[in-house]
Automatic annotation (TrEMBL):
Organism: Thalassovita gelatinovora (Thalassobius gelatinovorus)
Organism classification: Bacteria, Pseudomonadati, Pseudomonadota, Alphaproteobacteria, Rhodobacterales
Top-level class of the enzyme under EC nomenclature: lyase
Keywords: Lyase, Metal-binding
Keyword field contains Lyase: yes
Protein name from the UniProt record: Ureidoglycolate lyase
Length: 294
């Protein structure tokens, strides 16, 4: 099942995507709400969808402007160094415990919204990543039970300001600039993907330039292992988001010169059977000018 939260006719709704058509679930069953948290926390609504018990008018899916799948996630947890070749290109040792960091709500935005290069740095990098949307929460979740806690999978671009990431041993500054982490536009439920979304092609590109190309089967820590590890130190809650790390090919590691994102480009992150997360790159100063003149 492919779901999308989006804006159409000045309202935000949850949509069921089938080929090129979008069924407005918020109109068909208002209790679903205007983002995925209603479906996440009310299993009976998902059961109605799976049974085909929901009907209504459809719209052209291409006409809907994407919004965040979960408007206010409680936590945005991110895994670093989860592909061996990416670890090597960054000059790190292969860890025996995953690198984990967090993102703020202000740092993320919906697919299609501008990825902002801030005025204080031109070293904006891309990172293609699989992202988990947590369905059922819990603490000390076992690896064997972990996939039962997944509501769905989406696409994430973990935009990073590399100079700020390396100012300290903690990555927080470089990973949390406003409007640098694009999510969506689709969330695909587990029954439509391989277990743990393993074995899917993952790629980043600008136009015809392929920047990264790998497979989610190359992750060191699987989705199930990651959920088990993270739930040891924090209680996972419905609507939490977990990013699964990026494969090799990031801009800062390109030889002989780094490949930074530039205003005017559109970076696309694609994961097989989930979708494409496209983000136009804009300079912070240009956005400020637009706001003044609009």
């Amino acid at each position: 099942m492919k779901l999308m939260v989006g804006k159409s006719a000045d309202s935000t709704a949850v949509y069921l995507i089938e080929d090129t058509k979008a069924l407005n679930l918020t109109a068909a069953m208002p209790e679903a709400g205007t983002d995925l948290i209603g479906l996440i926390t009310t299993p009976a609504l998902m059961e109605k969808l799976r049974n085909g018990d929901v009907s209504g008018t459809t719209e052209d899916a291409a006409s809907i402007e994407p919004a965040l799948p979960v408007t206010a996630p409680g936590k945005i947890l991110c895994l670093g160094l989860n592909y061996i070749e990416h670890i090597k290109e960054g000059g790190y040792d292969i860890p025996d415990y995953p690198a984990i960091f967090m993102r703020t709500r202000n740092s993320i935005m919906a697919a299609g919204e501008p990825m902002v290069r801030p005025r204080c740095s031109d070293k904006l990098d891309y990172e293609a990543e699989l992202m988990i949307v947590i369905g059922k929460g819990g603490r000390y979740i076992t690896e064997e039970d972990a996939l039962d806690h997944v509501f769905g999978y989406t696409v994430f671009n973990d935009g990073s300001l590399r100079d700020y990431q390396r100012k300290t041993h903690q990555w927080t500054p470089g990973k949390n600039f406003d409007n640098t982490g694009a999510i969506g536009p689709y969330v695909v439920t587990p029954e439509d993907l391989p277990a743990g979304a393993a074995g899917l092609k993952i790629e980043s590109r600008v136009g015809d330039e392929v920047l990264q190309s790998s497979n989610t089967g190359n992750m060191i820590w699987s989705v199930a292992q990651t959920i088990a590890i993270m739930s040891e130190f924090t209680t996972l809650e419905p609507g939490d988001l977990i990013a699964m790390g990026t494969p090799p090919g990031v801009g800062h590691a390109k030889k002989p010169n780094p490949r930074w994102l530039k205003p005017g480009e559109t970076v696309e992150i694609e994961i097989e059977r989930i979708g494409i997360c496209a983000s136009p790159v804009m300079d912070e100063a240009d956005i400020a000018t637009q706001k003044v003149t609009s």
